[in-house]
């Protein structure tokens, strides 16, 4: 049982089943509140309530409710008058239907309340309603009266508890006329692909990791001034250029999102172009040729070979001459 004060006592009407419950706020505000002060001397500014007829200040116990009629006259309405309204929802949360949760427009969602079982007799019907909601995968639509007016509510299960969300009446939600741009715009597939990539890069987040940075910054300012120190200076806002090219803005957003998540984008390097000419490169000036020169040994070998060939020719001629002379003598 939550250690908070209930704001409403009654019962949940589930057909002929009645579940005694207490209504407890399911949310709380952590925002920092300020007092109005006189800037010259720091004195508190207070609003005092005066009676126009008696021209005197009145206490809270003397203040009641009144309805101002069209002619300006005031019609007093007491808490007892409101308690005896001819409505079944005055002290009862009357369930009127069970519908799938997706049928509820989030625009209708209002404050949330825990329904706490009131006493031991409420344990069995409370558990019955909770388990019936779980098994049906539906939510209950109910009507109830709170703070002087009848309201619409939605009951659903959170853990082992039943939660009731206040809902706005359908006619209290404004139609979104004139909100969307009236100019005809064409979105290209490439732009949608980049938008999808940005969504995938940002990914999901655990809502438990989110916190109110504004409130923390205000607390730092208050702590610094209370200690007589200068409040911390605000960092310079990032300079945002005008969005001229939507594609470039999307690409930059994807790149920045990846870097913030520690992902290094692939580095694109431009390699030098290959030469198309196959001509041999020119030798630099002054560089000696690498062709081998004939050595002295190879020159002498060449001369000896030539001399040997010349001797062989002369021997052949002498042999031929001797054969000719011999033939003549024999004749």
Please explain how this structure is put together:
With 331 residues, the chain is of the alpha+beta class. Among the domains are: 122 residues, Ku70, Chain: A, Domain 2 (Beta Barrel); 31 residues, no CATH class. 29% of the residues lie in helices and 22% in strands. The strands form three sheets. A seven-stranded mixed β-barrel has the order 1-2-8-11-10-9-7. Strands 3-4 form a two-stranded antiparallel ribbon. The chain is extended, with a radius of gyration of 50 Å. It starts with 7 loop residues before the first strand and ends with a helix.
CATH class of one domain: Mainly Beta
> Which topology of one domain does CATH recognise?
Ku70, Chain: A, Domain 2
* Morphology: extended
Strand order of the largest sheet: 1-2-8-11-10-9-7
**What's the SSE pattern?**
EEEEEEHEEHEEEHHHH
Main beta-sheet strand count, sense and barrel state:
7 strands, mixed, barrel
How much is the radius of gyration in Å?
Answer: 50 Å
Average pLDDT reading: 79
Give me the count of strands.
11
Q: Mind telling me which CATH architecture of one domain this is?
A: Beta Barrel
